[in-house]
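Annotated sample (chain length 391).
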Amino acid sequence: MTTDHGQLTTDHCPAALTPSIRSSLGELRGRIHRYVWAQGLASGLSWLAAAFWLDLAADWIFEPPLAVRAVLLAVVGLVLAGLLLERIGRRIRVPLSDANMAMLLERRFPEFQESLLTTVELAGQDLDGDPWLAQMLDHTRRLADQRIGSVQLRKVFDPRPLRWAALAALLLWGAAAGFAVGAPGTLRVWWHRAVLLRDELWPRRTHLVVEGFDRGPLKIARGSDLEIIVKADLRMPLVPQVVQVRYWPEGGSVLRAAMTRLGIARPGHDAFQEYSYTFRNVLVRHAFDVFGGDDAVRNLRIEVVDSPTIVAMVLDCRFPAYTHFAPRQVPVSGAMPLPQGTRVVVRAKANKDLVRVEIDSALEEQPGPPQIIELAQAADRRLHLDSGRLK
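Output written by the structure step:
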């Protein structure tokens, strides 16, 4: 330090930053934090708007099931979290010391000639009573203080990344806002499907109905054919020219086929336009979807079961008195000749539970359609039929 007469003395004290230098370094630190937050939030908003448009298009075109929509929503959230963590969380935790701020200003404004960095690094240090060093530091501090007053801190930053992120967010969200005003119903359906994960369908111009599947999977006998009938409601604006069935047998690949249009229905006269497709020789379970116009009926199932078969049959026979035969059980092994007047009880066992039995009678005394026996109250593989007395 110097005296009033310019004499050097041995008195010394720790060097300190001037208020203007300390204020400028603090302001720069705050500007960096605000820049990091602004750029990170702009990037996050841009991603959300872009994800909205991508998800809206995918959901409209493909109308994915609930599980796929849940995965897409989770992906959007994970990407957003990762983006904010990278752009804000990781950067905001970086320590910004006065020395870091001084070095940043020195690189951007070479007119400091390292006076600011030197002042900051030696601030608060004991100069060990060296008057020459104290005088040099005081001179350096005055130079840094003079030059920092003319520095424009905003020039430290490259504005282009922030501008591009803000512009992208503005354009994407502006388009989304315009879409919300112009098509609020569509936005509501998307919100219910993509965010609330409801099983709501997009509005349709076509309505398809598949007969026979209103109670779940349809069961058919193994190896048989199955004709499916699809009806298009003529009250809807669009009646498809082509209806396609997409199916995949158990253990097989996905197959496609066009259904056959049955005649030409007339609006006002007919209620539906019908389409037909036949699954031939079905041996395994099938799953299939039906597409036509902008409608689809999904997740239909064909279950294959074995045909009911009689696996064992015996006849409880009570013979007429003139035969002198004792009552006995006779296993059935084809056509069974019995004496006239024999009373017979047929005992049979099927390969599966039965709910209905149809009996064809060839007796001339019993003309008419086959007899139907309902067993719905207690399905059983065993069947006991009292066929009466043979005449």
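Annotation: The longest strand covers residues 343-354.
Annotation: DSSP finds seven helices and 15 strands in the chain.
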